[in-house]
Amino acid sequence: MPRLEEHCWRRSCTSRVESNNYSRENWVASKAEEMMSIITSVLSNVYGSLHSLQTANLIRRGLVLFTVGVFLALVLNLLQVQRNVTLFPEEVMATLFSSAWWIPPCCGTAAAVVGLLYPCIDSHLGEPHKFKREWASVMRCIAVFVGINHASAKLDFANNVQLSLTLAALSLGLWWTFDRSRSGFGLGIGTAFLATVITQLLVYNGVYQYTYPDFLYVRSWLPCIFFSGGVTVGNIGRQLAMGGVEKLHND
C-alpha cells in the first residue's frame, strides 16, 4: 500500500509539472501573439500614414502644376493671339483673355502630367537631379521660357528657318543652363513631339490655325516652344517634389 500511494503521488506531481509547463507555454505563446499583433498594427498604421501623406503631397503638387500651366497658357496664348500668330474662329474670341476656353485646362493638365513625370523618371533611373536645385533658378528658368515664347511672336527674321534655328538654340541653352540631365532632355523631346502632333491634329480639324504655316499645318519653331516648356515645367515639378520629400522626412 505505501508503494501504491507513493506511485500515485509521483504521478500526480508529474501531471502538475506537465500542466504547469503547458500553461506556461500557452502564456508565452499568447503573449508573443499579442506582441506580434501590436507590431503589425503599428506598422500598418505607419504605412497608412506615409501612404496618405504621399498621396496628399502628390495631389498638392499636381494642383500647383495645374495652376502654373493654366497661368502660363493664358499669358502666352494671349501674346500669340495679339501678334496674330494664332487665329481662332470668331465665336471663341469672346471668352476669357480672348482665347479658346479649352486651352488653359488642357495646358494645366499637361503641365501637371509632365511636372509629375520628371521626378518619377529621375527616381526610376536612379539619377536624382541636383543641378541648380533652388527656387531662384526655377524662377529664372520660367523667365527665360517666357522670353523664348515672346521672341517667337515678336522677332522678325528673313525666313522661318532662321527663326526656328534661333529658338532651337535658345531652347537647348535653357536646358543646358537649368537642367543638363538625360531624363530632362529625353522628356523634353518626347513632350515636344507629342504636343506638336496633337497641335497638328487640332489645326488639321479646323479648331484654330497658324498664320504662315511652314511645318505641315503649324510653324516650324513650335516644337522648340514645347521643348523649353517641358523642361521648365519639369524643373518646377522637381523642385516641388524635393520640398515634399523634405517635408515627409521632417514629419
Q: What does this protein look like?
A:
This is Insulin-induced gene protein. It is found in: Endoplasmic reticulum membrane. The structure is a single chain. The chain has helices spanning 2-82, 103-125, 135-154, 160-178, 182-204, 222-250, and strands spanning 86-87, 209-210. The relative contact order is 0.12. The protein is elongated, with a radius of gyration of 32 Å. The protein has one domain (52-250). Helix 1 runs antiparallel to helix 6 (222-250). Helices cover 78% and strands 2% of the residues. It is built from six helices and two strands. Mean pLDDT is 77; it is low at 93-98 and 245-251. The protein is mostly helical and 251 residues long. It starts with a helix and ends with a helix. Strands 1-2 form a two-stranded antiparallel sheet.
Element layout with pairings:
Layout: H1 2-82, E1 86-87, H2 103-125, H3 135-154, H4 160-178, H5 182-204, E2 209-210, H6 222-250
Antiparallel strand pairs: 1-2
Helix pairs in contact: 1-2, 1-3, 1-6, 2-5, 2-6, 3-4, 3-6, 4-6, 5-6
Domain count = 1
Tally of helical runs: 6
The radius of gyration computed from the alpha-carbon positions, rounded to a whole number of angstroms, is 32 Å
**Helix amount:** over 70%
Number of strands: 2
Low-confidence stretches: 93-98, 245-251
* Element-level helix/strand string: HEHHHHEH
Spatial arrangement of strands, main beta sheet? 1-2
User: What's the average pLDDT?
Assistant: 77
**Principal-axis shape:** elongated
- Assembly state of the chains shown: single chain
- Main β-sheet: number of strands, strand sense, barrel status? 2 strands, antiparallel
SS content category = mainly alpha
Could you tell me the strand content as a percent range?
A: under 5%
Function: Mediates feedback control of cholesterol synthesis.
Protein name: Insulin-induced gene protein
GO cellular component, one term: SREBP-SCAP-Insig complex
Main location: endoplasmic reticulum
